[in-house]
Amino acid sequence: QERITLLEGVANSHEVKLNDGDSAVAAWYQLFEVDEMHVGALSNLERLHQVREEWPELIKILDRIADTDPKRVVELHLRVGAIYDDNLRQDEAAIERFEEVLSLQPESLEALERLEVLYVDRDDWEKLVDVFERSVDAHQEVGQRIDLALKITTIQREVFKDSDSAADWYNRVLTMEPGHAEALGLLEAVY
Predict the structure, then answer these.
(1) DSSP reduced 3-state for 146
(2) Which run of H or of E encompasses 2?
(3) Type and span of the H or E element at 136
(4) pTM
(5) DSSP letters of 12-62?
(6) pLDDT tier at 127, thresholds 50, 70, 90
């Protein structure tokens, strides 16, 4: 306990009094070696790596926090996915994290929206349709669900040239909103 208290003081002194971020990070890691679950070490390393834009190190710390705080796993995976996407430009890693979020929380609109952008950028139409289908289930508002269903029909019709699948989605739109003029008109065009 004395060593922990000493290392906390050293880390704080390096950061606050000496304005020496490198030494503060090193001291927090020393403390982390003594007590891997030390909340103060984890939160200070998270903050310092964020401020210093040390993305790989921040990801490691966020993963460690997720291991210690299961209630924050979804939030932390979203953050890590965003770091991979926005800061490191590692699409595959970002996709993996957002898919992991959806395995834990299928209705996560943030993960679905992030995946939508990634799959549009890659022209990955199959996965984009899958994201739209999951989004239809996740959204509560009928208008949003209809908009997504119509996007699916457009991809089915124009990219995959699959009139049957497009017709199925037009029918789903009509189930959500009987008499939907656009769906009726496009359904007639399909047949």
Answers:
(1) helix
(2) helix 2-12
(3) helix 125-138
(4) 0.87
(5) HIIIIIS--HHHHHHHHHHHHHH-TT-HHHHHHHHHHHHHTT-HHHHHHHH
(6) very high
